[in-house]
Design a protein that fits this description.
transferase, 371 residues, Phosphorylase Kinase, domain 1, alpha+beta, Transferase(Phosphotransferase), domain 1
Length: 371
């Protein structure tokens, strides 16, 4: 195992961790000050501050602005399958016929998933751009206006580790949102007991770093995702992660239920305070990110039941704070991980999973760049 020490015999990784912990109160204060004066606008599992909306400008309509093409830059391509990210100057208004053709009539063969939000399909535009189409039901013009305004807020959201929204369709009493297609599925497939290969240690670290960067970007733009979990982290064949599934309109139009009756809220990723009161904050995302880190370290899923009926977090918590953290490691990579990297990830995970949100890191504090 690789270790770096200074002249006093102290690990440089330990110095990095201590430096971040020392800065916690100062950075937390800075982050709060940045948000001060902004009124949150709820968007499904997310909150977008009004400042984000004010930063966007309406482009005059131009048919060429609606065109979706593939990036020419090599840096935007997956090195394995050579797929490239789309390039759009503005989100496109798709017709129902456009998406009917792209998905081959929303065929079973093109179906990706079914959820309480609605079905999801893969598709292909005439210019060979691969897309993902998520269908929602809308019942009146007011719902349509709300959906459109929510989607419009994300016109300029662009980051290497955030899935891109390409456009939407509001026809035939349905809303369909179109996303870019990622070439290697979602992280949860690699955590299941299926036929997917086990992730290497290097791949797990890369996914941790990329997800942290994407979430830091969202929070820096005053966006709370509200549903960070393995199934919402999409991957390229290079194992570059992108945060997706924004679930527009879900809170507004779902029948009200008690918080703990919501399967999504009690799926192993939800922070304790969210289960109590259902209120969103950036610290909710941080907690969920901590659960994802724990899944990557252990190779277990958040929904797995462990001996004694404990949840993944309940089982791992005693090991996170002590010297037995090596017992957390997925047996499939027990001989290949870097000890200092593991120590670093475990300490970050522990800080993200604090029961008291005031003791948790912000994403500004989750710096994995030195791993």
């Amino acid at each position: 195992m690789k270790r770096n020490h200074n002249e006093n015999g102290i690990s440089t990784q330990e110095i990095g961790i201590n430096h971040i912990i020392d800065q916690e109160q100062e950075e937390e204060k800075s982050f709060v000050q940045k948000k001060r004066g902004l009124r949150p606008v709820p968007i499904s599992g997310m909150i977008v501050q009004t400042q984000l909306q004010n930063s966007f400008t309406e482009n005059s309509h131009d048919e060429h602005q609606d065109e979706i093409i593939l990036e020419k830059s090599k840096s935007s391509a997956c090195s394995i399958c050579k797929s490239k990210r789309p390039k759009v100057s503005r989100m496109k208004d798709f017709t129902h016929d456009d998406l009917l053709e792209a998905t081959n009539g929303f065929s079973v063969e093109n179906s990706l998933s079914e959820s309480e939000d609605g079905p999801t399909f893969k598709g292909l535009l005439p210019n060979k751009v691969k897309i993902v189409v998520k269908k929602y039901q809308i019942t009146n013009s007011q719902e349509e206006k709300i959906f459109k305004s929510e989607v419009q807020l994300f016109t300029n959201v662009r980051h290497k580790n955030v899935v891109m929204l390409l456009g939407l369709c509001t026809e035939k009493s349905q809303l369909m949102i179109v996303y870019e297609h990622l070439c290697n599925g979602s992280l949860d497939h690699y955590l299941s007991r299926g036929n997917f290969q086990s992730l290497t240690w290097r791949e797990r670290v890369k996914i941790s770093i990329g997800t942290a960067r994407g979430l830091k970007y969202l929070h820096g733009n005053s966006i709370i995702h509200g549903s960070i979990k393995a199934s919402n982290i999409l991957l390229t064949h290079d194992f570059e992660p992108l945060i997706g599934d924004f679930g527009f309109g879900k809170v507004k139009f779902e029948p009200k239920k008690s918080y703990k009756d919501k399967s999504g809220r009690d799926s192993g990723y939800a922070a304790p305070e969210y289960l109590e009161n259902g209120k969103l904050s950036t610290k909710i995302d941080v907690y969920s990110f901590g659960v994802v880190l724990l899944e990557l370290i252990t190779g277990r899923r958040a929904t797995d039941k462990l001996p004694g009926g404990k949840s993944l977090v309940g089982w791992a918590r005693p090991l996170l704070g002590g010297k037995k953290y090596a017992l957390l490691v997925d047996p499939k990579i027990s001989n290949s991980y870097e000890e200092e990297q593991l120590q670093w990830l475990v300490q970050v995970t522990d800080k993200c999973l604090k029961k008291n949100p005031k003791e948790r890191y912000t994403m500004n504090m989750v710096s994995l760049n030195d791993i």
